[in-house]
Design goal:
single chain; 159 residues; mainly alpha; Serine Threonine Protein Phosphatase 5, Tetratricopeptide repeat; 8 helices; globular
């Protein structure tokens, strides 16, 4: 299993505005589910992790407005990207990553572009892969590729 992207951390949940515009009760519910999902992800229990993230997404979607109005959606969709990628569900990872890019701040997330590029690569879409992986590098530097298969870093600049 590939190492998780930098979005799988409590610090990043806060950095992505996880606490913004949510009541304390809703924030606590979503945080608990995400912490449980993160622990399951780290333990390789991907289906369990996805279930927890989906539960958090349901709670978020029940809030006023659209789910894309909340920066927490960026984190939750990014978690889905990681799970789908590590399950080898590259088409779902690609579609989820493209949806993630509609979320607040996601266009500036190297982790989102990394997962999108990796999914494109695995699906044989090499030009799209190179574009997304190059964007991940531009935003996150070489370290965004730490722990990832070197084939993705080798794809940089092949546009």
């Amino acid at each position: 299993m590939s190492s998780p992207t930098p979005l799988i951390s409590k610090r990043m949940r806060t950095a992505y505005g996880f606490v913004n515009a949510l009541s304390d009760e809703v924030q606590a519910q979503i945080s608990r589910l995400c912490e449980e999902g993160d622990a399951m992800y780290q333990a390789g229990r991907l289906y369990g992790a996805m279930s927890k993230y989906a539960g958090a997404m349901i709670i978020l979607s029940e809030q006023p407005g659209h789910i894309f109005d909340y920066e927490a959606a960026t984190y939750l969709y990014s978690c889905r990207n990681d799970v789908y990628f590590n399950q080898g569900k590259f088409d779902l990872c690609r579609r989820s990553a493209l949806t993630t890019l509609k979320c607040p701040g996601a266009d500036q997330s190297p982790a989102v572009h990394l997962r999108l590029g990796q999914a494109e690569f695995e699906m044989g879409h090499m030009e799209e892969a190179a574009k997304s992986l190059t964007r991940a590098f531009e935003l996150g530097g070489r370290e965004i590729f730490d722990g990832e298969d070197p084939k993705y870093l080798a794809q940089l600049g092949k546009i």
